[in-house]
Amino acid sequence: MEPECDKLMMESINKNYVDMDEYPVTTELQNRCVNMIARLFNAPLGDGEAAIGVGTVGSSEAIMLAGLAFKRQWQNKRKAQGLPYDKPNIVTGANVQVCWEKFARYFEVELKEVKLREGYYVMDPEKAVELVDENTICVAAILGSTLTGEFEDVKLLNDLLVEKNKQTGWDTGIHVDAASGGFIAPFLYPELEWDFRLPLVKSINVSGHKYGLVYAGIGWVVWRTKSDLPEELIFHINYLGADQPTFTLNFSKGSSQVIAQYYQLIRLGFEGYRNVMDNCRENMMVLREGLEKTGRFNIVSKENGVPLVAFSLKDNSRHDEFEVAETLRRFGWIVPAYTMPADAEHVTVLRV
Length: 352
Known about the structure:
GO molecular function, one term: calmodulin binding
Number of helices: 9
Number of strands: 13
Keywords: Calmodulin-binding, Decarboxylase, Lyase, Pyridoxal phosphate
Family: Belongs to the group II decarboxylase family.
Strand order of the largest sheet: 1-7-6-5-4-2-3
Pfam families: Pyridoxal_deC
Oligomer: single chain
Shape: globular
Catalytic activity: L-glutamate + H(+) = 4-aminobutanoate + CO2
CATH superfamily of the largest domain: Type I PLP-dependent aspartate aminotransferase-like (Major domain)
């Protein structure tokens, strides 16, 4: 980040974000970030209408909050209908980041995973919708898989789920985990429909400390409308001064990352972010083409998606991907090697 932003962060390092009455400007900056991000994701907001969202310490907390909102919405509807509400489940691909497993385990939600297969390393929308039942709180789609950078087909998922909801009378929604892709897709693939343009997308999270271009410690979650965030999940406190609404898993946290995110958004603007993402994609293409020219690697990742290259050895009879990663580490290069999740565990890749 620029020196000016580093200075701003250091000047605010002693400011506790939760002291909204003492540091009201930080709250205002967070609200401005939420509004800009929600509009970037095409939230259905009128002129002057405030977006619904919150800053978090990362996408993991953001996902926990979004998941809790879906769970409570589902429970409230089941209670009103006089139906059991003790066995909620959530549908994801087996390629999800570990925070989804944490959410399911910590908050007692069954995790129903769509298994992968060789050559298809993201959630299959058709198989995902098949797993949806009356106890499904939502389907989680990933915009930028950690494993390959690939964007899942949220548009197809939405269309299939619309039809299933019509047939069953359910109203199962979608959460988009855009931790990596949320600050990429709007700039590189503006025509791609993955966000609030799709009616069943109820909430989206994004990491400010990934392609939001801020140091570690900032994430965001935004909701489609106010009705998608149950009011009973929002706490109101007054012991720090005026009435303060709060919906976070944390309480105290620093203000620096919120200020840094606001700085980046207004300093770079839409053009600036697009230029950065264009440059990342060009770098990815150079590396991809270079690896292909060696004739030694299979490229596993797609050209469209998060600008990364995931690849495997064509011939691993003498050396495997883990040996390559270990050798590179000796020269100071950290290139992770890992196996794919179920049912593609036999596939090993490296990622840059």
